[in-house]
Amino acid sequence: MTLTDASARGRHLLIVDDDDRIRELLKEYLARAGFRVTAASGGAPARKLIQSLSFDLAVLDVMMPGEDGFALTRWLREQRGPAGRTPVLMLTARSEPGDRIEGLKLGADDYLPKPFEPEELLLRIEAILRRAHDRPASAGGPLSLGRCQFEPDRGELTCDGDPVRLTEAEVALLRQLARTPHEPVDRLELARGSVDPSGRAVDVQVTRLRRKIEDDHKTPRYLQTVRGVGYMLAPD
Fold first, then answer.
1. Which of 139, 198, 191 lies closest to 169 in space, CA to CA?
2. Is the pLDDT of residue 3 over 60?
3. Containing domain of residue 33, as a range?
4. Which is it for the CA torsion 85, 87, 68, 39, positive or negative?
5. Other beta carbons within 10 Å of 47
6. How many domains is the chain built from?
7. Is position 164 within any domain?
8. Quick one: which of 211, 207, 213 has its CA closest to 158?
């Protein structure tokens, strides 16, 4: 049974696209799949919705007049509390790898080029929501990472006692590494089920996490690269 079959009902999605036809088609299709769907025609109305409502995932078009999807994602990740961790799936006619990497750097969880099959969009939404809500069976206690601390059960990172914003993809990656501290995890294993099975998305997320955790992200102490294998979390 898929996530949509079992528990889509009640999951609230935000669709942001300036194309009226696409926006309404997506709203209708995802509503039929069992989701609650709210739609916005651009960045300004989307911001108002995000500030007043709670969403489980946002689907953002990149190419919009005024504030584009990149700028909206950047703003979203700057928000405090659950809003700042809302999973983001970006839709765009741009297919260049540089645009996709830019979206991931800003904190997007997935990136789907147009044109696309609605079923593929639905499957990607399901995959993101599974990652966002998965809880490891035995994650153990908090892990000390120098001035930072990561709590796998709650998916929370604090540094110097202050909460640090993480995307759901970053939380999922840290949890995977936290299951086997001081042991290397294969890069492709970390990438399995991610937006890019080649591992490039994992590399982007590791770079972002190092900037949040490490005193010097260029010489990481806690989130280490294991040559020829992948990455390893090395808590105190």
1. 191
2. no
3. 3-133
4. negative
5. 17
6. 2
7. yes
8. 213
Tell me, yes or no, whether 22 and 118 share the same domain: yes
For the entire predicted model, the pTM comes to 0.62
Higher pLDDT, 7 or 163: 163
Are 216 and 152 in a shared domain?
yes
Q: How far is CA 162 from CA 136, 147, 149, 165, in A?
A: 24, 10, 10, 10
How sure is the predictor about 96, in pLDDT bands with cuts at 50, 70 and 90?
low
Residues 64 and 101 in one domain: yes
What SS3 class is residue 110?
A: strand
Place of tokens 């969009």: 121
Give the pair of three-digit tokens for residue 210: 């190092």
| pLDDT at residue 179 in the model | 87
State the pLDDT at residue 95.
63
Phi, psi of 137, deg, nearest 5: -60, -35
Q: How confident is the model at residue 143 (pLDDT cuts 50, 70, 90)?
A: very high
Residue 136 confidence (pLDDT): 45
Distance CA 71, CA 75 (A): 6
Q: CA 181 to CA 177: how far, in whole Å? A: 6
